[in-house]
Amino acid sequence: MGSKSSLYQYGYYQSGGEALPSQQNFYTFEKAAGSFIFLKNILNKKFKAKLKEFYKNSPGVQEIIDSKLKYWLDLNTES
Prior knowledge:
Elements: E1 5-14, E2 22-31, E3 36-40, H1 45-54, H2 59-75
Antiparallel strand pairs: 1-2, 2-3
Helix pairs in contact: 1-2
């Protein structure tokens, strides 16, 4: 959304050792007015639902969310 919204991503990777390796990614979406939402796990339908709720007053953003997250959700058919 250009200057109307910002996205920040933080991720870390932990090597296995005795356990399996893991990777976590965290996302912060911030509107220009200062409201924000923290989300994780992009391969989850709840991620998409919460993001659409956050941007419910922006039909253009709703379309972007639908088109961009379709690929990620198609990768994970179990969510």
